[in-house]
Amino acid sequence: DNTPGKFPGNSINAICREDYANIWLHFQDMHIGLFNVQQNTFTDLTGKLKALGLEEQPDIYPFLFKRTTGEVYFNYGAYLLKFQQEGKSYNIGVVHKFVNEQLTAYFEDFMGNQYVGTKSCLYTQSASTPGWRQIILPAGTVVKSINKNAHKQLLLATNKGLYIMDAAEHIIAHYNSYDHTAMINDYLYGVLLDDKDKIWVSHNKGL
After folding, report:
1. pLDDT tier at 88 (50, 70, 90 boundaries)?
2. Residues near 66 by beta carbon (within 8 Å), at least 6 away in sequence
3. CB 81 within 8 A of CB 75
4. What does the buried/exposed string (b/e) look like for 154-182 if buried means 16 or more CB atoms within 10 Å of the residue's CB?
5. Residue 86 to residue 71: CA distance in whole angstroms
6. CB burial class (10 A; 0-12, 13-18, 19+) of residue 66?
7. Are 72 and 64 in contact (CB under 8 A)?
8. Structure pTM?
C-alpha cells in the first residue's frame, strides 16, 4: 500500500527464496519475478515467458519450487517451466507440457523423484526412470500441495483433505473433517513437516 505500482499484481500465490537478497514471487494471472529485499526493487521476468509464444493458459494455481540444481520450477496452465541463472540474467525453458491438465503443485524429494499435482490427478517421474507417469486419485480431487515424510510416504494436501500414500503409491490414510472432527476444514492449501516429522496443514479456516 505504501509503494503502489511496485508489483504487477496484488495476488501473490507463491513465494520462494533465490538467495540471501532475492525472493521469487509468482502472481495469479501469470506474473513472475524477483524481489530484492535489500534494495526494495522488483524485476519483472514475465516478458521472458511471453517470449516463449505459448498459447494462453488459465493461471489460478501458481507455484514455485527451488531445485537443488539451482533451477526454479514454476507453472503456467498445463506447462511446467523453469528459470535458470546464466551470469546475471535468467533463462527460461519448458520442462514438460501436461496435455489437458492444469498444474497446481510440484515437489521433488532428496533422491530426485519428481511429483506434479493437477486439478484431477498426480504425476510422478522417477530419478532413475525418465518419463512422467500418471497416478489416479479419487474423483474430484485437486492437489494443492505435496510433501514426503521420513518414512517415504507421500503427503497430498487436497480439496478433500490430506491423503497419505505409501512407497507403492497406494493411499493408506485419508484425513478429513468427517472422520477426524479435530480437522475442521477439508480444503487444504499447504502441507509441511517440522523437525519432529509432525504434519502441519493450512486450510480455509487457519492451521
Report:
1. confident
2. 16, 17, 18, 24, 72
3. yes
4. bbbbbbbbbbbbeeeeeeeebbbeeeeee
5. 11
6. middle
7. yes
8. 0.92
